[in-house]
Design goal:
With 104 residues, the protein is mostly helical. It is built from 3 helices and 2 strands; from the N terminus they run H-E-E-H-H. The chain has a two-stranded antiparallel ribbon. It starts with 22 loop residues before the first helix and ends with a helix.
Amino acid sequence: MKKPNAAVLLGSGVSMASGAPSVVEITQSLLEGGWCQYASDWQRFYKAESGDKSPVGREQALIRILCGQIQETVTSFEGRDPTYEDCYDCLMQVQQYFGRHSIQ
């Protein structure tokens, strides 16, 4: 006899009871908070503390512009504001495009 398979689908709000930030809070922090890059690893960042200068200010400005550009589309199709996940998806598409096309 086959054992039944089970699937559990959880939304991003499932961890809110533990005090983890919501998608909205993470997005707000991404767009408005200060971030610094680890010197030893260009792919990881930490939340800036008072007095820190954010070396990722240009990158954060790009994400803000991108978020503003997708605002109308996400709102009309999804009925919500863009999240950090939407911004990440757009940035991955840009990266994939420029990975296939060189700029001369």
